[in-house]
Amino acid sequence: MTLKLLYFAHLREALGTGGEDLAVPAHVTDVRTLRAHLAARGGTWKILEESQNLRTAVNQQMAGQDSLIAAGDEVAFFPPVTGG
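RESULT FIELD:
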């Protein structure tokens, strides 16, 4: 299945991209396994699995680690945001 992935704030800087369309293997069915799949790229990509405070949205709705993903979904990763 193919997903649209978006990376915001320091993730965009660290990963060198703001997003990508990515075909993922069939076993990638939730946010947790997607993060592990991306982290397996090695190097800076490990931040997606190691960061405890990383937030995720699936189709512009906040999502937890166990949230399911499906073909065509938009998955965004971003750090917690503070405002003032």
